[in-house]
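Prompt: For my understanding, could you write out one protein's sequence and backbone structure tokens?
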Amino acid sequence: MSAPVAVVTGASRGIGKRLCADLAVAGYDVVCVARTRRAAPGKLPGTVDETAEAVERAGRRAMAVGVDVQDEAAVAALAERLYAEWGRCDVVVNNAAVAPPRPALDDAVKRWRLAVDVNLNGPFYLMYHLCPRMAAGGGGRVVNVSSGAAVTPSFGRPSYTATKLALEGLTQALAHELAGRVAVNCIRIDMAIWTEGFDATLPADFDTSWFEDAVIMSDAVLWLSQQDLAFTGQILTLGELRRQGVVRPPTRAGRA
């Protein structure tokens, strides 16, 4: 039998990159999805090609796909390619996100649309084009990635709060629709997790020594990938998963 296959969006850096590497170590072939390719680098460090190379170093197959999740046609093409070349999909992690940093009413409407397209429509497109195939192939699991900002209106990024809360609602609605065929759950990140992007976005004197390592997201995703299909429609925080022993004790990965 072929190895299980995971699709991870937002895979060029940070949480997505770590998830790809750890899924590979756990035995998954990984489809690494992100906009940033080596041939067209972005402002922040990391490319989907580098992530794919990390997967291959772990001894698994990698498919590096330069796709913007807000482009439905590109997502549809990704699904077609995946099933044509690898023939299966077992886990989808909707990790890609944007967080425009300004108050909604003071910002350009295009930034609101960007947040909706990436944070809500993007995950829907992945589920729309992959979940029916997963169900037909015997089942699968979707893990959507939300944030504590979903329930913190004072976070200061209204488009991020609104779209993450909507993603949680979408998780529960599609869990109901796909019951018994595909499990759809959501991890609400309620801890600060260090990613290399902070080197470029935070002041040099900002203390991030208390930030957690992204490996805790791998703990959560791998655990959800092993649960029965009946375990679905859940919005789980990293804090509660740590209390249950799913997520390892506190890690420290930031800079002092």
Remarks:
- The chain has one domain: 5-243.
- The radius of gyration is 17 Å.
- Strands lie at 5-9, 29-34, 62-66, 91-94, 140-147, 182-189, 235-237.
- The chain has a mean pLDDT of 94.
